[in-house]
Specification:
Blueprint: H1 3-21, H2 30-40, H3 47-56, H4 66-84, E1 93-94, E2 97-98, H5 100-103, H6 106-127, H7 132-146, H8 151-164, H9 169-194, H10 202-226, H11 229-232, H12 238-241, H13 247-251, H14 253-271, H15 279-289
Antiparallel strand pairs: 1-2
This protein binds geranylgeranyl diphosphate.
Length: 293
């Protein structure tokens, strides 16, 4: 099967699982569940769940990876909802649509984010309860990546840097490693744990995620500086307008592209050490270097 078809099929199965595993929109309290689904179903690229599925199929999945894939997307969606809030980045547009607090209201958006955060761990506990050690490892991977030293920590330093108007290369690196790369790495390690090899490649997958996450963030910065709002589905030039420290602001567009290429190359080099067949994962990594949104 060619890469595009495989990617399309993979996304379809993730969309189907989101529909099955999220609380119905008409369940009480209705507005909250509608807002959760609004954000989960508003057409993101599904990068993290697709990476999880690709890692799970390295030696063939031993356990159903879809509940884990949805759990990772729940954390991602919650982080985007909260990032768009007026007290954070104050974003009006997400994936070409009004951001959650614009579509509903601020309180509903905060609560929808909170509920997606807990929904992630509920899915892991519920779907892997018969494999206790696996369930605990998955929960630990995701909680670590989403926690105060990683996703939330990265976001915290991002806000601090913006408020102080100062951001050195070391702090920008901390922000990228934690705000962006941590969840990408967790998606890969969780996928590895669900594959038949039972996580024999987990440490390699963690390294791949670290490089891929940095490359992904740098490309995101380049797109913010060079893309247009229609293509990106969010306000282009927002980082520059907010005078936000980004890789592009510190190093310029060309050096940023070169850095993204280096990290992509490192991620691909680590793929060579993985057990099983990493062909789909390698194709995914290559495709991300040339993404347009
Ligand atoms: C509020 C705890 C908390 C964290 C927010 C996710 C985030 C941290 C901030 C969003 C801003 C940003 C540029 C984050 C870097 C990660 C990133 C590139 C997010 C966008 O992910 P995509 O491109 O989005 O996978 P889609 O819409 O395709 O899901």
């Amino acid at each position: 099967m060619d890469f595009k078809t495989k990617l399309h099929d993979c996304r379809q199965s993730i969309e189907g699982a989101i529909d099955r595993l999220m609380p119905p929109a008409d369940r009480r309290p209705r507005r909250l569940h509608e807002a959760m689904r609004y954000s989960m179903e508003s057409g993101g690229k599904r990068l993290r769940p697709v990476l999880l599925m690709a890692a799970a199929e390295l030696d063939g999945p031993a356990h159903d990876p879809l509940p884990s894939a949805v759990a990772v997307e729940c954390i991602h969606s919650y982080s985007l909802i909260h990032d768009d809030l007026p007290c954070m980045d104050d974003g009006d547009l997400r994936r070409g649509k009004p951001s959650c607090h614009r579509q509903y209201d601020e309180a509903t958006a905060v609560l929808a984010g909170d509920a997606l955060n807990t929904q992630a761990f509920l899915l892991l506990a519920r779907h892997y309860r018969d494999h206790t050690a696996l369930a605990v490892e998955l929960i630990e991977d995701l909680a670590t990546a989403a926690g105060s030293e990683r996703l939330v920590g990265g976001q915290t330093e991002d806000i601090e840097a913006e408020r102080s108007g100062r951001c050195e290369a070391e702090q920008l690196d901390f922000i990228h490693r934690n705000k962006t790369a941590a969840l990408i790495s967790a998606a890969l390690t969780m996928g590895g744990r669900l594959s038949r090899g039972g996580g024999s490649g987990v440490e390699i997958l963690r390294e791949i995620g670290a490089h891929l996450g940095i490359a992904y963030q740098i490309i995101d910065d380049v797109l913010d500086a060079t893309g247009d709002t229609g293509t990106l589905g969010k306000t282009a030039g927002a980082d520059l307008a907010a005078d936000k420290a980004t890789f592009v602001q510190l190093h310029g567009v060309e050096a940023s592209r070169e850095k993204a290429k280096q990290h992509t190359g490192e991620a691909l080099r680590f793929c060579g050490d993985l057990p099983g067949d990493p062909a789909f994962l390698c194709q995914l990594i290559r495709s991300l270097e040339f993404r347009i949104q």
